[in-house]
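Lest this sound abstract, we let one protein speak, letters for residues, whole numbers for local backbone shapes, and leave readers to judge:
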Amino acid sequence: MPITRSEWEIPAAGGLLKATLYAPRGNPDRAPAVLMLMDAPGVRPALHGMAARLAASGYRTLLPNLDWRH
């Protein structure tokens, strides 16, 4: 399934939290949502790959950068 990728800046106390949203193409608003949280090494290509695979399977997947204050 084709997917889309978009970069988001989410307003938060202290600044903007950057996140990447992967979604199936077509009608992504009807797709179930997944919040993918990073582990200790941070956001990296492997996590983007996992989020893209979830989107290709029909899920909207938000991958926020939890280290956004650094």
In short: Residues 45-56 form the longest helix (12 residues). The mean pLDDT is 92. The beta strands are 3-12, 15-24, 33-35, 60-64.
